[in-house]
Design goal:
alpha+beta, six-stranded mixed sheet, five-stranded antiparallel sheet, 34% helix, binds 2-acetamido-2-deoxy-beta-D-glucopyranose, signal, GSAP_C_dom, Gamma-secretase activating protein
């Protein structure tokens, strides 16, 4: 029996799981795939003994072969299809070659014959067509797992440029299934005057092109399971076709077709993606020998892009015909031996989100120099061998490509592919974080951290429903001026397709929503942080005024919700001390982001309930914080950092130094996008800074706002460090730089004369300030009862005591700080300076 086996094979970028069809019988002759049905059954044909022509099917799922029919003649099968119930077989074949017909005086016999055969069991045969023009057949398939039906519908496509549909009813009688209607089968015209047609088997759609003067119209008919067919789409294409021959795509595979003829005819294919993308790909003739041109109409975006690729080297025997493949998120334009262009369907605007591979990267071993077709998504057929391959992007190859890439365009494309195509794969994500942490400074035209966060967020949030993909940013880049060497691209606006459908779910609904957003939306629907930044700045500055408005309270309520939301779905161990402290600034930003994102979504998603939007927004901000946490956790692991980063009496390791720099870059990335960081981030950052940086550099970072003095960290620092000269210097420099409010809280933890001086000075300053504010009109009374010891100081303490007596206590939380304390500190300090001992 003929054996079919599958064998996985790793390729460079494309990983092919190969289904090789091979013949192990003794009189071996090649098997050829003639069709792939919707249920995954592959119809193939082979020549047996006595030159019989067999037709069989292979089930991809069960790996079973089934013999369907045998002709006791040597025929060239053109097209073949079996219905869902496997009771009927439609076959079209060439009876004789032209020469045989002439020599055997068979003029009256038609060149081609199309039959409808009962095969359960093999029984009656009906002639559907006996003509001199070639015919293709294709049964329609209902939605999957539907009950067997007694009704089958068959499409018949004629080279004479029309397509019709036959309705066939069967009845089951005595263990056999026969066609019910003995007369003419009912039929209907589906399309006329077409010059190109493509069958989309999975979705049961027929695309076809009708020429109209110098332009062409692309139409689509959708076949529904229980209804008739509906014409659903019309789109004008600026493609002039003067081909006289009908070109068919995916109506079976006629391996005997003259390759010369095939390669000269219109090379055009339509691809759809699950997210409502609709692309027309076609190759254009170029007059320049070392140049290839192809054009993609992104109908769902309203523009076409024409690519011109200069080839590095051409050998005359090489194909100059680009093959197109559909990988759902990408459309691939492939020229064996030259290049593999993976064009992003979802985000085709910036060329840097498409992978353009050349040389070794573009090599697909199994598909070296053959002419190929893409019958299904992620599947290619080698038209010469009749073999079919599953194609997909290999994540390990992609990672390797990312690591070896030399150009920013390659890095961006690979990063984008890894994050958005593979969607949230733990291990890949970890590898990417490692790559980013190693290669932060190799990227010049984009920030890999920003790109990682935005793209990962997009991918986690955007989802099948809600049109969120149009409202949330997928990239941190607004523009990209880089070029891909050897490729030029021209973009033109095109007219949008017209859709006619009612209550359609799935693809058509998504395409419609894509078109609506092209039609009505201002160009930048994606959420942007400009307003957020302004508001954040404003509120941060107002903080000093300590006015807690309802508005501000709501903002902080938002932040609290985000953090508790994060708690509910993040049970894994957290990096100390993230999320364990309050961070006014970051919580303010979080809360603001929630409020503004909510406004943004409410404006554009009016039909989605408020509750749902609340949920989405919380998810978004919580995910954002979680991603930062994830990056930190990975680099922590990678550089084997331990929790003793707050042991300030030791110097930091090399690993810590690297992580400190990565954290600085994360901070920069967050600032650039006005994006909140997890509370505790600044504490960690400062802790590492203290351990790793020399003092002057540390102070420089603090003064430039890179390092933030957080209460947790400064308190630890003041408490834990002993008073060696070096530590004193550090502590003093830090204390000097503390903002007032924080200073009041933490200075007390440092029991040191310098600190006491500082506190005393501050106290005097504050008291005098209060005095000034009160416009005290009374003259300061003389207090002669006090012994005169140190006049200037006595005078001052009298004055201060007086103010104190008026119930002014600037340092309410520190009971020991009073006039007495000031007096003592001043005396201690003076004695110190004079080198005397104070008792
Ligand atoms: C159209 O016809 C002309 C002349 O018959 C031919 O040169 C040209 O290549 C054809 N164009 C296409 C797109 O087939
Ligand atoms: C493809 O390559 C094989 C060898 O690698 C060669 O035998 C064959 O002729 C080539 N086919 C075409 C169409 O160039
Ligand atoms: C960083 O890039 C270099 C060269 O571009 C590469 O060799 C290295 O593997 C990359 N690091 C990671 C972790 O991928
Ligand atoms: C792209 O669209 C523009 C505008 O409709 C058209 O002029 C141009 O010919 C199209 N490009 C190709 C290669 O079809």
């Amino acid at each position: 029996m003929h054996k079919l086996y599958s064998e996985p094979a790793q390729m460079k970028i494309l990983c092919l799981f190969i289904l090789i069809i091979s013949d192990t019988s003794e009189n071996s002759s090649a098997l050829y795939v003639v069709n792939v049905e919707r249920n995954g059954k592959i119809i193939y044909t082979w020549k047996g003994n006595q030159r019989n022509t067999h037709i069989g099917s292979y089930d991809l799922q069960t790996k079973q072969n089934e013999h369907l029919y045998m002709f006791e003649r040597d025929l060239r099968i053109i097209s073949c299809s079996v219905n869902n119930e496997r009771t009927l077989l439609a076959v079209s074949f060439r009876q004789y070659t032209e020469e045989a017909r002439v020599s055997r005086l068979l003029q009256s016999v038609s060149k081609y014959l199309t039959l409808l055969i009962e095969i359960q069991p093999v029984n009656n045969v009906r002639v559907l067509k006996a003509v001199d023009s070639c015919v293709r057949v294709q049964f329609l398939y209902p939605v999957e797992d539907r009950k067997p039906s007694t009704e089958s519908r068959l499409l018949l496509v004629s080279e004479d440029k029309y397509i019709e549909q036959f309705d066939i009813r069967v009845v089951a009688e005595e263990h056999k299934v026969v066609i019910q209607n003995s007369g003419q089968l009912p039929r209907a015209r589906v399309a006329d005057d077409l010059i190109w047609a493509q069958w989309d088997m999975m979705e049961q759609r027929l695309f076809y092109i009708v020429p109209k003067e110098s332009r062409s119209t692309l139409k689509c008919v959708q076949f529904y399971p229980d209804e008739n067919f509906n014409s659903i789409l019309e789109s004008h294409l600026d493609i002039s076709v003067n081909d006289t021959q009908l070109k068919l795509v995916n109506f079976g595979y006629d391996y005997c077709q003259d390759q010369d003829v095939a390669s000269k005819s219109l090379n055009l294919q339509v691809f759809t993606s699950k997210a409502g993308g609709l692309c027309v790909c076609y190759s254009l003739a170029s007059d320049i020998p070392d140049e290839i041109m192809y054009s993609i109409y992104f109908l769902h975006k309203g523009y076409n892009k024409t690519f011109t690729v200069s080839l590095e080297r051409t050998e005359s025997h090489q194909l100059k015909e680009v093959a197109f493949m559909n990988l759902d998120y990408y459309v691939a334009a492939y020229l064996p031996g030259q290049f593999l262009h993976l064009l992003n369907i979802q985000h085709p605007d910036l060329p840097c989100y498409s992978l353009f591979l050349t040389g070794e990267d573009a090599r697909i071993d199994m598909l070296q120099n053959c002419s190929i077709q893409s019958p299904l998504m992620s599947t290619v057929l080698d038209c010469h061998l009749g073999s079919m391959y599953a194609v997909s992007i290999s994540d390990s190859a992609l990672l390797q490509f990312l690591q070896n890439s030399k150009r920013d365009s390659e890095r961006l494309a690979a990063l984008h592919c890894a994050l958005l195509y593979f969607r949230h794969t733990e291990d890949l994500e970890m590898q990417i974080i490692w790559w980013i942490s190693d290669n932060l400074s190799t990227c010049h035209s984009f920030d890999p951290i920003q790109e990682f966060i935005i793209a990962s967020l997009y991918c986690r949030m955007c989802p099948e429903t809600h049109d969120l993909d149009k409202l949330l940013p997928y990239t941190s880049l607004l523009d990209w001026i880089g070029i891909i060497p050897g490729v030029t691209c021209a973009t033109d606006i095109i007219s949008l397709p017209v859709l006619e459908f009612q209550n359609s779910k799935g693809f058509w609904e998504k395409l419609n929503s894509n078109l609506e957003s092209v039609k009505y939306a201002e160009p930048h629907l994606h959420y942007h942080s400009n307003v957020l930044r302004r508001e954040w700045r404003k509120l941060s500055e107002e903080r000093e005024e300590r006015t807690t408005t309802v508005y501000l309270r709501n903002i902080f309520e938002n932040a609290k919700k985000v953090l508790s939301h994060l708690d509910t779905w993040d049970s894994e161990e957290r990096l100390v001390p993230l999320f364990q402290e309050e961070d006014y600034e970051q919580q303010l930003l979080m809360g603001l982001m929630v409020a503004q994102l909510k406004d943004h979504l409410m404006r554009h998603l009016q039909y989605v309930g408020k509750k749902k939007i609340d949920q989405i927004v919380l998810d978004y901000v919580a995910n954002l914080l979680n991603l930062v946490h994830r990056i930190l956790k990975e680099v922590w692991r990678r550089y084997q950092l331990h929790s003793c980063i707050f042991c300030f009496d030791e110097r930091g390791s090399v690993g810590e130094f690297v992580v400190f720099h990565i954290m600085s870059r994360i901070l920069e990335a967050a600032n650039g996008m006005c994006m909140p960081l997890p509370p505790g981030f600044h504490t960690l950052h400062l802790g590492l800074g203290v351990r790793c940086l020399p003092l002057h550099t540390l102070l420089h970072y603090i003064d430039h706002g890179v390092l933030h003095l957080t209460e947790t960290c400064v308190r630890k620092l003041l408490k834990d460090l002993d008073n060696t000269e070096k530590n004193e210097k550090l502590k003093f420099s830090i204390v000097m730089r503390l903002p007032e409010a924080l200073g009041q809280k933490v200075r007390q933890f440092w029991n040191h004369p310098t600190n006491a001086n500082f506190i005393a000075r501050k106290y005097v300053e504050l008291l005098l300030e209060k005095l000034g504010n009160r416009q005290c009109s009374r003259p300061v009374p003389e207090r002669l009862s006090v012994p005169v010891e140190f006049l200037p100081l006595n005078y001052l303490s009298n004055m201060l005591a007086d103010i104190e007596n008026q119930d002014v206590h600037p340092c309410e939380k520190q009971d020991h700080v009073n006039v007495r304390f000031v007096e003592e500190t001043a005396l201690k300090h003076t004695m110190n300076l004079l080198g005397l001992k104070y008792s």
